[in-house]
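<context>
A single protein, sequence plus fold
<sample>
Here is the protein in question:
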Amino acid sequence: MKKRFLCVLFLLLMQLSFGQNTLSWQGYFSFNEIKDISESPTTVFAASENALFSKNSTTNIIKTTTTVDGLSGQTISALYYSESAKKTLVGYENGLLILVNEADGGIVKKVDIINKQLPSNLKKINHFMEHNGLVYISCDFGIVQFNLKTAQFGDTYFIGDNGAQISIKQTAFFNGSIFAATSSGIRKAEITNPNLIDFSQWSTVNMGDWSGVEAFDTELVAVNAAGYLHRYNSNTFVGFFQLSQPATDIRSKNHNLFITTPNTVYVYNNQMVLNRQISNTQVLNDKLSFTCTTAVGDVINIGTKANGLFSSTLSGVSVFENNTPSGPVRNNIFSMDVATSVLWTVYGDYNLSYDPYPLDSYGVSRYNASGWLNIPYESVFDAKSMTRVIVNPNNEKQAYVSSFFSGLLKIDNDVPTTLYNEKNSGLETLTFLGPNYIDVRINGNAFDKSGNLWITNSLVKNGLKVLKTDGQWQSYSMSSIITDINGTSYGNIVIDKNGTKWMGTNREGVVAFNEKTNTFKKITTGEDSGNLPAADVRAVAVDTKGQLWIGTTKGLRVLSSVSNFQSDSQLKANAIIIIDDNLAQELLYEQFVTAIVVDGANNKWIGTLDSGVFMVSPNGQETKYHFTVNNSPLPSNTINDIKINSTTGEVFIATDKGMVSFKGIATGANENLNNVFVYPNPVRPGYSGTVKVAGLIDKANIKITDIEGNLVYETTSEGGTIEWDTTAFGRYKVASGVYMVFISAQDGEETKVKKVMIIR
């Protein structure tokens, strides 16, 4: 009996592991923009915009750390690995300090610098220098001391004239003194001086603006803002070499001095002889921009501004290898689309006024089970500012990308094949800037049930286009419904069950069109014109009940039924009124809504410009989740887009600082009950989340009882997943034990029974 119990427990623990993974957040970050690097005797550590990765030269294992692991989504500005403490220090532009413990991956956030009564733009952390267990942190206001053993901050040194705040770029310890490269000269003080907080204890060695200072065996080397290298002669710094560009980094390692400029890395030996000079063309091409350099053993590692980390052997000439973890091209994903087995992302954008300038040239990315594929700008027929992408629902190997300047790009089997523009399609360029100016602004896109692709063409008379399955184009004039054709840009477009197209606009609210009756209608501001809080509509979505959810720059509205298009001469949307603190309030009042999607249970996921993500119940009366940077792995509260994989229920959230996904909340309904499962299972002590029953058919009846048959919960599914808060009808938490989950179809012809173990 005991052996059988252990076997059952083992199986349940295996299910628990699966369940926890299913529930987890997942990060999809770009590691291409290397902000800083550090090293141990065996490992190189790199900090990208807001994530870390490391590569062990012995095992070749690459490890990543993101907001999902506890990092901040803010921008990283400095990185340091302490071999003595076995900790990685991460400094941020806003003054945040994070410690990552090597032993267990634990992350501790220190906000002391953030909390200093100083201007927020002066709190940036520029550099870490360790000496005798203390780390001297160079900031834009001065130097802060940090004790690695106690993880506590010490004194702060304001070393400018008369104790003024000055930007410290880097510090170095040399011959008993601490040297600081600042925007107002190189300052020096004896490190044993007990009164370093007194600015008068710091003397000026050299005047001027300095970008770095580094102790290098028996030398002390500094570089000024103009890129002129200097050596210290016990009294002053004397110039000896003018770099071709200002330096982005200077550091010593393994008896080598590495000086990095945007297009060249200089490697000096400890006799100050230039041993090697590496240009960006030797690593990749002349577009490559270097940011920093270090070495692990005989391996040189060079960080770049947009292409990740490159490595090669330091001795001799050899090929450089890119050691960057796979990911999207950049973190600022503007839009995306998700199908069952593929995800596409684009990076081109426009500002809040729909202005795409300056034009972007980023290419497009695809993610599937084999990983990331980044299609460069050179392969997309020079399509600029690509703002939306859509996967063909009838062919996941085909995608269409909207360019807000160049037209419509078609991709087949991961290969761009056609760029539709004013020359080879029904697409049009704007004309009010003259006949020779070509600017084809394509944005919103949606497939109808017949497989035709509908798209919006901004700033032209025929603003609605359709690419039919036979390859023919058709255009529809918007002049009968749009007041200012040349000033109207379009957001996204959705198509309802009746075939009506609903389009958000920047000036005219929501425009609706049905080609069967050739009818246009509009929902805009004003009590008698649609009741929108603003005419600038950024998101529209049709839910499973046939309601149209409308996100504007000043709040949310809902049209009770899309079928009203056929009957009502003037469509009207209404606010959702909720009761909060016994007061009637409007849901998302005055919020700038950027995205709305509907999950398999008809919940609404709503993205905002600066308040994160809201997940509300089908009728909007209950906010089930409100994810922000403070309570989730979201790297930013600025939400660019949200999409849901209807098969898995995974919710993808694109922000201006990276993309994450949230798993296991709601999925589309299944055709049968063959794949029903319960997670997490078992529910362990300390778990505060809900139990999910997934793989359901729509309108399934679910009853949960204890082992004796006492009913503790009952519900009917909407979509493929339901949640149970492990209470007996909300009255109290149920006790430890095995609970039975009885599932039956609405007609009673199909049933399923599952078990879940709860351990308190």
